[in-house]
Amino acid sequence: MMGLIATVFVVYSFTSYILLRRPIIFLRKKRLLFEAPHISHRGGSGEQIENTLEAFSSSLLVGTNMFETDCHLTRDNQVVIFHDDTLDRSTGVSGFVKEFSYEDLPRYLKVIEVQFTPGSFCITESPSSYKIARLEDLFNKFPNTPINIDIKVNDDFLINEVARLIETYNREHITVWGSMNSKVSKKCELRNKNILTFAPFSYVIWIMACYVVGLLPLVPIKYDCFELPLVSVIRSNEFARRRRWDRFLPNTALLLSDFVLSSPLFIKHLRKRGFPVFFWVCNNEDDMRKAFELGASGYVTMNTTGDVHNHSPIKDIYLGTECGKITEVNELIIGRRIVHEKNFGTICYVGGLPKTNGPWLGVDWDDWSRGRHDGTYDGVRYFQAKGPTSGSFVRPSKVSLGTSLEEALVYRYSVCTTCQLETQTSLQSREKPTGSSHNILVHECTQLGHLNSYLGSTAEEAEYFGTHEYPKDTLRIELYTNPGTYHQLTSHDDLCGTAAAKSCLNRLKSVSLSSMPVYRALYGKSDFFPDRQLEYSSLWPSSGGCLDQFLSSLCDLEMSNCLLSKWTEIAEICIQVPWLKSLNVSNNRIRLPVSPKEVHDKQKENECLESKLLYDIYSDPVLSERLCSNAFPQLSQLTLVKCPLLNWKSIRRVLCWMPSLQSLSLAYNNLGNPPIDWGKNAIDAFQKLTDLDLTHINLTATHQLFALIGASKYLNNLLLNYNEIADIPDLNNHLFRNLNTLGLKNNLFTNWNFVNQLLNLSKLDHLMVSGCPVFENSVNIATARQEVIARLPNLKMLDRVEITPEERRGSELDYLKRYGASWLDCCRGDQNSKQTNGPKLLEEFYKLHPVFSRLCDKYGAPEIGETKPFNRSIKAGLISLIFILQHNKNIGTTNKSSSRSSSPMDKNDRIQKQIPSQMTINHLRMMVRRLFCLSPKTLFELYVQSGRHRDIVNTEIPLNVDTREIGFYNLENDDYIFVRI
Questions:
Q1: CA distance 724 to 726
Q2: What is the 3-class SS of 445-460, one letter each residue?
Q3: Membrane spanning segments where (predicted)?
Q4: SS3 for 314?
C-alpha cells in the first residue's frame, strides 16, 4: 500500500513539474496588446507630486511604459485620481475626498511626504501648487498610454463611472483595472469583461496554494494579469511600519509567500500561459533586477528615472567602457586587471575548460569572497590564486579591462551633479540614499548644472524630539561640480560632459582618480607610435594622445587602486604631461617591461605563466625603455604604496627613469633588505632623494640601507616605521648630514643604545620611536619619552609632539636622578675591587650614557640624597617643607635671615608642614592660602629652594605649572617654599 502511494506521489509530482514547465495547450492563453516593463507608481511618487498630470508627463518623458494610479469619487460624482481616503497627507486639509465637491478640493502641498519612505519628501518647483486631477483629464492628455487603475473603495457608482470613461475613450485594450479587494474586483469583472482586470489579493493566495500542491497547471485563471509584491519590500522596516503588514501576515506566511513568489518556475509558468506579472514596489537596483531575474513582465516603481532599460547618455565608467572591451582573447591579456560589477581582479589564465565551448578567463579576485576555488577545476590546476576561494572562471564578455584616463577625467570633473547622480549605480538612476541617518531628496534646479537637495529628519529623530511628525519645512542645499560661467551657457550640453571638458580640466592642478577602473590612456599618435590608429570616445572631445591640451595646469596625479598593469601605459599617460610633478600609483599590480639587457633570458621564460604575471613580456623592450626614460622629466614625487609586484630590482629601474625625483614612498611593500650590488646610476638617484618612506617593508637590518643612502647630502626625511630593525650601526658625522626627521616607530629595539647612535645626527630635530619593546619595558610611556628627550639634546619634536623647554628641563633632571646612583658608584669604584677599576667603570658608564657629563655641566652633578629611590606609598611620600611668607619689599632681607640657624621673622610667617609628593601645584596654592589666611583677592607666587643650596645665588625654582606634582621637583625634607605676595 505504501509503495503504491509512493508511486502515485512520484508520478503526480513529475507530471506537475512537467506541466509547470510546459503548460498544456487547452488552457486559455492571454495576450496583452502592450508591454510594460516600467510602470510609474502614481506618476513617480518618489520624485514628483503624486497623481498629478505634471508627474505623469515627467515620467513619460523618461520612458515609462505604463501609469499606475488610484481613483476616488467626489461629492458631485467626479472621478478624481487620488490615493488616500483622506486629504491630510497630500493637502494638509482634514476630511475625506467624498466630502468635497471637485471645485472645493484643496490643492496639493508643495512638500509631501513620500509614502512607504518615512522622512523623505517630494517638493514641487512650480510657483503654484498643483490641483487634484480628474481621471477624464488623464485620459484626455494621454490617450494612447496604458494605465493601471486601482479602485480604492467599494462603490458601485464609482465602478460604473470608471468603466464609462474607459468605454468613452475606447481604452479597454490598454487599461487594467481592479482592486486588492476581491469584492471590488468581482464587480469590475462583471461590469465589463473586455477591460483587463488584475487579480485581487485573495485570488493570488489561491493561485499560490495551487502551485504549492502542484495543481496550478490544471487550474483555469480568470483574471488577466498579476500584480505581486516583492516580499523583501513588504518585510522592510519602513513598509511594515506604514502598512502594519505584520498584523495580517505572520512570519510563517511571509516565508511561504517568499518561497512561492521568489520561484522563477511559478512566475514563468504564468508568463507562458499569457498572464503578465508585475512586481511592486521596486525602488532600487536590486529589487528591479530581482524582478526581471524571476521572469517578471515589469515592475512598479516610485522612481521613474530608475530604469534598467532606459540608460543615461553618461555611462557608468565603474563598469568599464568601450575601450576596455576584450576583443581578442589570447595570452596577451594574461596579467591584465579586469572589473566586473565594480569588483577588481587579475587575469591569470586564458583558454578552454573541459566539456565547454569557447574560451574562459581564470580570474584571481581582489575580494576573495567572489571566487569559488584556488585555480583548480575538476582536479586540474590552471593557475594559482592568492586565496583558497579567490579564483573563478568567467567568460570574456562578462568582464572589462576598465576605462581610459580621459573618460575617467570627464566623468569625475566635467560631468554635472545631475548626471553623476544618474550614473552612480549600474541602473544610472537618481536614487535616494538608503540606510542613512538623514533623508535627502534631490531635484533638478532651473539653473543648469545645479541640483536642489532637501534634507529631512528620520522617524527616529522626530520621535526623539517628541513631535512624531515629519517636518514641513526643509533645508535647501545647492550642489554643483562645474564652476563655469553659467550665464554664458545655453544648454545642458554646454555645461556638462564633453563640451565642458576643456574649460574644466585646464583649471585642475590636482587630479584624483582613486578606485576608478582606469587602465590606460586613449591611443594616439606619437614619436614612439607613429603608425598607431587614433582612438576616440563619446565622453572625450578629442582623440587620444591630446592630454597636454586639456591638463595644462596639472601638477599632481593620483591613480591609486586602479587597474593599471603596465609601466609602459603609465609612461604613455605621463609623457603627454611632461610638467607633472607628483604621481601616485599605489595599490596597483604594475608589471615592468623586459629590460633590453635581459631580453634573451626572458624569452626563455615566455612560456612560463609566472613570467607573464610578473613582467610585461610582450612589449618591445627597446621601445619600452626609451618611452619610459622620456616620460617623467620633471617628476619629483612618486608614491608606490602596496604594489604587490614591486621589488628592489624594479625600483632601481624606475628610479633611473626619473632624473628629477626627490620624494619616494615605498611603504607597505614586501621588499626586505636592499641588495649589496647597486649600479652607480641607481645610487646617485637614491642619494638625490630628500624624502624616503620605507614604512613596513620587512626591513631587518640597516647596514646595507645606510650604505646606500647614508652619504646623501639632501635626505631630510627618512621613515622606517613598522619594520623589524633591532639595532642601528655606528653613525659617523659624515652620514645623514641634513637628516631632520627620522621614523623608527614599532621596531624591535630592546635597549637605548640605538638612541645613543642618533646623537651623531646633528640636525635631527624630529624623531618617531613609539611602539618599540624598549618603551614597553619602561616604567611607563611618559618615563620612556623623558628618556629619549634627555638622551637627544637637539631634539625638538618627539612622536609628532613638540618638546617644550619645561618638558626638556624636567626630563633631563629626571635622567640625572635616574642614573645618578650608578654614576656615583662608578665614580667611587667597586669597594671590593682595586681603585684602578674606577676609571674603567666610569668609561663604560659614559658609553651607555654619553650625554650624562653634558647634563652634569648644565645642572650640576647629582648628590647622594638626590638619587634615593622614590617610594610610592603615601606615608613614605610625605615631605616636610618650610613655608615662608614674604612681601616684595622684604625679599632681600628675608632671604638672608631665613636659614635653618636663625629665623627672626614672626612665627606666623614661617610654617613647617608635611605634604604628599603627589600633590599638584594647584592644590598646594589652595593649601598655602589656608595656612597664611590669605584673602581670595591676594595674589602670590611660589618659589622652591633646596636647603643645601641656600648660599648659592639664583637657585630658586618657580612653581608656576599648576598641573605638575610636587614630586616632579625632587624636593627633600626641610627645603624652603617661599610665598611671595
A1: 6
A2: CCCCCCEEEEEECCHH
A3: 6-24, 195-219
A4: coil
Q: Identify the CATH number of the domain in which residue 357 sits.
A: 2.30.30.190
135 & 222 share domain: no
My answer on whether omega of the bond before 599 falls inside 30° of 0, hence cis, is no
* 279 within a domain of the structure (yes/no): yes
The closest alpha carbon to 480, from 515, 516, 442, belongs to 442
For residue 336, give the 3-state DSSP assignment. Answer: coil
Task: Look up residue 17 and give its amino acid.
Answer: Y
Question: 619 in helix, strand or coil?
Answer: coil
Per-block mean pLDDT, blocks of 10 residues, the chain (981 long): 78 78 60 74 83 83 82 92 88 88 87 71 64 90 87 90 91 88 90 89 87 83 85 53 47 60 81 85 80 85 60 67 88 94 93 90 94 92 93 93 94 75 46 37 43 42 38 41 42 65 88 95 88 81 89 95 96 96 96 80 58 88 94 96 94 94 96 87 90 95 89 93 92 86 94 91 93 84 91 94 92 88 76 54 86 88 60 65 81 44 54 88 90 88 79 75 82 88 86
Residue 841: what are its φ and ψ, rounded to 5°? -65, -40
Last residue of a domain, one of 197, 212, 232: 197
Same domain membership, residue 230 and residue 174: no
Q: Is residue 721 part of a domain?
A: no
Compute φ and ψ for 186, nearest 5 degrees: -65, -40
Strand partners, 692: 664, 718
Position 589 in a domain: no
Residue 772 backbone zone (phi > 0: left; psi -120 to 50: alpha; other: beta): beta
Main-chain phi, psi angles of 5, to 5 degrees: -60, -45
Q: Which domain holds residue 94?
A: 42-197
> Same structural domain for residues 23 and 159?
no
Backbone dihedral region for residue 672 (phi beyond 0: left; psi -120 to 50: alpha; all else: beta): left
Do 243 and 380 belong together in one domain? no
Asked if 885 contacts 932 with a C-beta cutoff of 8 angstroms, the reply is yes
Residues 142 and 48 both lie in one domain: yes
CB contact burial 14-43 (16+ within 10 A = b; e otherwise): eebeebbeebeeebeeeebeeebbbbbbbb
Please check whether residues 812 and 853 belong to one and the same domain: yes
| Number of structural domains the chain divides into | 6
- The residue type of 273 is R
Rounded Cα distance between 836 and 803, Å, is 41
Question: Does one domain contain both 192 and 111?
Answer: yes
Residue 148 β-bridge partners: 68, 176
Amino acid letter, residue 698: N
Residue 932's CATH number? 3.10.20.90
Q: Could you tell me which of 12, 74, 69, 73 has the C-alpha nearest to residue 41?
A: 69
Tell me, what DSSP letter sits at residue 105? P
